[in-house]
Amino acid sequence: MGKIILTGDRPTGRLHLGHYVGSLKRRVELQNSGAFDKIYIMIADAQALTDNADNPEKVRQHILEVALDYLSCGIDPAQSVILIQSQIPELCELSFYYMNLVTVSRLQRNPTVKTEIKMRGFEGSIPVGFFTYPVSQAADITAFNATTVPAGEDQEPMIEQTREIVRRFNNIYGETLVEPEILLPDNAACLRLPGTDGKAKMSKSLGNCIYLSDSAEEVSQRVKGMFTDPDHLRVSDPGKVEGNTVFTYLDAFCRPEHFAAFLPDYANLEELKTHYRRGGLGDMKVKRFLDAILQEELAPIRARRHEYEKDIPAVYDMLKRGSETAREAAAATLDRVRHAMRIDYFADEQLINAQAQAYNRKQS
Ligand code: TRP
């Protein structure tokens, strides 16, 4: 069946730089590498509803935003199938069968689920749908026979859970499902980009995000206000690079050619860090450098977004076609699953004939 990618995002907000370095940029590279036979990118609205049941409008509104973010980053619908999860009902049926292969205690041990339960204040009153979303994510992945799931490290427990379900299924019902592998970002700084305030993660509620759809001015404002080394009070003071958000972002975004273009006094990032550590390098200078790099990276994305924004019905049309294509693939997997589980009764002449014979014998 070849090498197949499946990955996705919950449509609960616009996508930001954390998504971009953590997965979006990589997806586009993977797409353009030609190394994959199929690429599916899922807007996981049904998963988003598992913890937004009371706010479906938020999810509904953000499907388009996420689609625009994908397109503007260079996901090309001619090469990658963009689909909306809820439009593939086959995923529900797969989830229903997979639920039997997972225990409650195994789900309780899933580190990502654990963290999210705390974050959402769900302790003691966990919605069942939310609790079981790792199972539904296993359906997302296996429905498309995905071999490769490019995602951030927070998704590792989901992929592990999927692999367990696949092994269990294949063990009981025979070799049917494909065991996927996660593909983590290759740059350590991209594993988890901190918020502009230095907090562990970009999050809408903390207001520490740089969005892909932000204007150039908004990006500059965010960079100006970025958390640095709180003890680096005077330019002449020695500064800390570790835990300094501006440098973490440079680790993620800076390439050697940026020095020639924007900061020719330094040959590379190591030189810049050394100077900062020694003292005599001001935060503003480093921030201006980062701002120039981010502007260069984001300008073409913003421009493409403006183009797509001119024809929103066409974007929905693309999503509809992607969902239809994806549905065909998922239906084929579901057929194989039903066959492996031997619940394809009406196609099972052996079953029907054997039972008919047995009853015939009884009658005579
Ligand atoms: N859980 C992912 C997130 O929160 C979204 C997602 C849903 C996903 N289904 C997936 C990611 C399948 C990878 C593969 O971002």
TrEMBL record:
Protein name per UniProt: Tryptophan--tRNA ligase
Cellular compartments per GO CC: cytosol
Gene Ontology terms describing biological process: tryptophanyl-tRNA aminoacylation
EC nos: 6.1.1.2
Organism lineage: Bacteria, Pseudomonadati, Bacteroidota, Bacteroidia, Bacteroidales
Calcium among keywords: no
Catalytic activity: tRNA(Trp) + L-tryptophan + ATP = L-tryptophyl-tRNA(Trp) + AMP + diphosphate + H(+)
Class of the enzyme per the UniProt entry, highest EC level: ligase
Keywords: Aminoacyl-tRNA synthetase, ATP-binding, Ligase, Nucleotide-binding, Protein biosynthesis
Pfam families: tRNA-synt_1b
Domain of life: Bacteria
Record gene name: trpS
Family: Belongs to the class-I aminoacyl-tRNA synthetase family.
